[in-house]
Amino acid sequence: MRSLWQWLLPTCVIAGANQAQANGWNMPVGVTDISRDIYGLHMTIFWVCVAIGLLVFGVMFYSLFRYRHSKGAKAAEFHEHTSVEVLWTAIPVLILVGMAVPATATLKNMYDTSEADLDVMIIGQQWRWRYEYLGEDVAFNSNMSTPWEQIRGEAARGEHYLLEVDEPLVLPINRKIRFLMTSDDVIHSWWVPDLAVKQDTIPGFINENWVQINEPGIYRGQCAELCGVNHGFMPIVVHAVEEDEFEIWLAERKEAAEQEAMGVDREWELDELMARGEPVYRAICASCHQAEGQGAPPAFPALANNAQLIDDLDWHIDRIVNGVSGTAMPAFRSTLNPVEIAAVVTYTRNAWGGDTGDAVQPASIAEKIVQ
Amino acid sequence: MWSIIQSVLAALIGVQKDRKRQQDFASEKPLGFIVAAILVTLIFVLILILVANIAAG
């Protein structure tokens, strides 16, 4: 009987642990050296806890059974036993110090953001992430791309439901990337389990973290700090690519940014502004003001058939550039570029039967942003 | 003197012989215990600072 237990118990425990890993119940091993260190620590400490648990409860249940009242056991009555008390104080201290040594080494490594090859600013916003490649003139917003029909239950859910974005964060593998993390509004938290990064982004503060990804792939995460009504709709997608692939991507993004900057000065037609404005509206505005501009009063006013908006162009632009203090409407002066703002203003003034015919020029928006 | 330090160290880890406890409480003046406790706490904090500096260095 005893030999059966000796064999069965460890087998069950190890099989259970493997099962937990396969089912995603355990934390992922991840794709960075630090994530592997953290996983190793987690498992070491887990097994230490298992051993302590088995030992303590084993002794307790054995004693309960072996010295039970019905067998005539008598309680030993003594008040103290100093050496045993010293022992059960010293052993946990040694165990804790033993766990603290490797944990501290990992923690030190995690906080060492020096000598990074690439700096990426991560900015939390209600409800999207903004990524800025510092010194590279590349910056973009990353919005959830799961269609609202799926969220409302009007369409079948896709494979990456609520975990897909229009523009993923693209990072090179094998390079040390420093993250500078902050927020424009409330506290968010940038969490990607496979990278072992879960860091609060706090308005007015810059938190630092770093990764060096070992394997190319797509890694998904979510905002991990309750940040408002659409907290569940600001996922994170990281594309880790080979270094030369990253350089090509970065060059393309730089060129696109230059093209966009040149577009500010030229005259835009109403049609092209409308075409440009619609995706911006869907990505940025529709989560509050709704797909057809009907809004959700009183929190989110309607844009369709909004008399004040149609009558007063300057007022309309000011709302978007500078936001509305004390409401959920943020300032978009640094989130959207002049072309995008001009396009989305034009779109909201002409879609849904507005038909003002206003083709707002990016150059005029650029002037307002400078003011 | 050594008896007081021993009692303070015992209090630090929360384990003390009953006989020793009664002996301590028979003493009239608490000042010795208070001074020793403050000193031992300071030394403990200094050791922690030292360990933290070694770990961070």
Automatic annotation (TrEMBL), chain A:
Signal peptide stretch: 1-22
Catalyzed reactions: 4 Fe(II)-[cytochrome c] + O2 + 8 H(+)(in) = 4 Fe(III)-[cytochrome c] + 2 H2O + 4 H(+)(out)
Parts of the chain that traverse the membrane: 44-65, 86-105
One GO BP: ATP synthesis coupled electron transport
Database matches in InterPro entries: CcO_II, CcO_II-like_C, Copper_CuA, Cupredoxin, Cyt_c-like_dom, Cyt_c-like_dom_sf, Cyt_c_oxidase_su2, Cyt_c_oxidase_su2_TM_dom
EC number(s) per entry: 7.1.1.9
Pfam family, one: COX2
Biological function: Subunits I and II form the functional core of the enzyme complex. Electrons originating in cytochrome c are transferred via heme a and Cu(A) to the binuclear center formed by heme a3 and Cu(B).
Descriptive protein name: Cytochrome c oxidase subunit 2
Species name: Vreelandella nigrificans
Gene this chain is encoded by: coxB
Automatic annotation (TrEMBL), chain B:
The organism's place on the tree of life at top rank: Bacteria
Assigned keywords, A-Z: Membrane, Transmembrane, Transmembrane helix
Protein name: DUF2970 domain-containing protein
Ranges annotated as spanning the membrane: 33-56
InterPro entries: DUF2970 (IPR021344)
